[in-house]
Amino acid sequence: GLNSPFLYGAKLHYNGPGLMYTARKNSLELEGKPAEVTVFGASALQQSAHAEFLATGGSLYYLKHKHVIEGSEKVMVQVRDKITNLVLSSEMKSEGVDYDIDYSNGRIIFYKPIHSVSDSGSIISTNILDGNPVYVMVDYEYEVPEYHFREGSYGGRVTQELPEWQDIGLTIGGSFVREQKDNTDYTLIGADSVMKIADLGEITAEYAQSETQAVNNFVSTDGGLNFNTIAHPSDEKGQAYSFKGKTRPIITGTPGLG
Q1: How confident is the model over 194-207, as pLDDT tens digits?
Q2: Taking a C-beta distance cutoff of 8 angstroms, is the pair 107, 60 a contact?
């Protein structure tokens, strides 16, 4: 297996006879044309997350996860437009200056309460920030259990060469990859085939579809007692097709006499 301070994983590879159906024995056996199989899995020992808190007017906020990596947090206070939700102002906060953090329990305590709405302190004010909601934004990394493959990456690829038919050979393959990294869940599924025609060349056809989803993004309106997942408009899906041909040169004519 592979291991590092932040990653555990393993990779298996097989290259040999394929699993073929044998009619005379009415069974599946390892025989005939070659096949190749590769599978892998890796589990990250730490993951990143993003939490948004609608300010409660208090000082105490609980992150979604415990066992936060020391020094990994980035804390910001934002004022957003109460109608459009656009960011009107933002201010980074510093540990030891603006807040204390308990990394083991994922708890942040601000030295001064964070008001739930922006306020100039005056009853009559022309300040455009007055009355707009305030959010506490925290990006951080946290420890995850070893071999927790749902929060790492895994996948595999299989290729199988099929028996030839009238000088035509066919190899088919399939791939699958799932990876979670930087608050993004990425999935790729692919299929491909190579047809070889004796003395003429080969044709390759490929198809792939992918999907990217934002994950580990949470919002809380009660200081971290409850969280909801943030729906992200950046989720993407895509498909791709490819067809390629390769021909062998055909030499015709009468050889010259020398």
Answers
A1: 998 877 888 999 99
A2: yes
